[in-house]
């Protein structure tokens, strides 16, 4: 990447952010936190199975929390939110499986146009496994919310933002961590991928950012510093 493109990206970020940052930086979800969620949630419980699928997709898909949850139990709409029909398990040109979620509406997409989220598969934190488990525990129709669970009466209910984050923080607090925020999954996923040496441009495309939004990476730089500075200390 040349200096001209870096300056261009930073100017774009400055226009977006301005001098209006009033909220402190959101802490990232780390792999250790994700593993704690995976091991602590009851994946045979409808709500927890739904929550784990949302967490796995939000992390690996660099998704906004509002893309995997809804603001209230009565506001779900298949024309706005992810439904079961929007989830696909596919195979790429290298014969590797991947997950594609087709967002009916997204913050950075044009009105009426789908925006797709792509996720890798594999390992115990695999989003495909999480979605498959959700389908097993919470059967639902194609038009029902993708991230949904069944209450004691058997009614399908969408994953509500506040309740979902409350359960996440309950688990994290029991493991000795502080509170996470919805955006923590998106930031954590980006930080992890960068720490593993994935190109910032690939991370930008995967996260559907319009620019190289450096601030989102740098704010959690301390979590990936050792990966990039390995063997330089004397």
From TrEMBL:
GO terms for biological process: DNA integration; DNA recombination. The keyword Hydrolase does not apply. Signal peptide: none annotated. It comes from the Eukaryota. InterPro entries: DNA_brk_join_enz, Integrase-like_cat_sf, Phage_Integrase-like_Recomb. Keywords: DNA recombination. GO terms for molecular function: DNA binding. Coiled coil: none annotated. PANTHER family: P CELL-TYPE AGGLUTINATION PROTEIN MAP4-LIKE-RELATED (PTHR34605:SF3), PHAGE_INTEGRASE DOMAIN-CONTAINING PROTEIN (PTHR34605). This is Tyr recombinase domain-containing protein.
């Amino acid at each position: 990447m040349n200096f001209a493109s870096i300056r261009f990206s930073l100017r774009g970020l400055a226009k977006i952010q301005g001098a209006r940052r009033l909220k402190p930086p959101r802490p990232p979800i780390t792999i250790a936190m994700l593993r704690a969620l995976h091991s602590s949630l009851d994946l045979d419980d409808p709500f927890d199975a739904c929550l784990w699928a949302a967490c796995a997709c939000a992390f690996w898909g660099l998704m906004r929390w509002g893309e995997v949850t809804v603001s209230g139990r009565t506001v779900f709409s298949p024309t706005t939110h992810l439904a079961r029909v929007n989830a696909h398990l596919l195979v790429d040109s290298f014969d590797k499986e991947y997950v594609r979620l087709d967002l009916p509406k997204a913050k950075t997409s044009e009105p009426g146009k789908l925006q797709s989220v792509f996720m890798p598969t594999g390992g115990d934190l695999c989003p495909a496994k999480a979605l498959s488990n959700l389908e097993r525990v919470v059967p639902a129709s194609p038009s029902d919310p993708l991230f949904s669970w069944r209450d004691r009466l058997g009614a399908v209910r969408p994953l509500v933002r506040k309740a979902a984050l409350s359960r996440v923080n309950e688990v994290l607090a029991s493991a000795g961590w502080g509170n996470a925020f919805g955006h923590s999954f998106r930031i954590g996923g980006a930080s992890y991928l960068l720490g593993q040496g994935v190109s910032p441009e690939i991370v930008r495309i995967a996260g559907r950012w319009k620019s190289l939004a450096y601030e989102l990476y740098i704010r959690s730089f301390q979590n990936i510093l050792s990966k990039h500075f390995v063997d330089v200390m004397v």
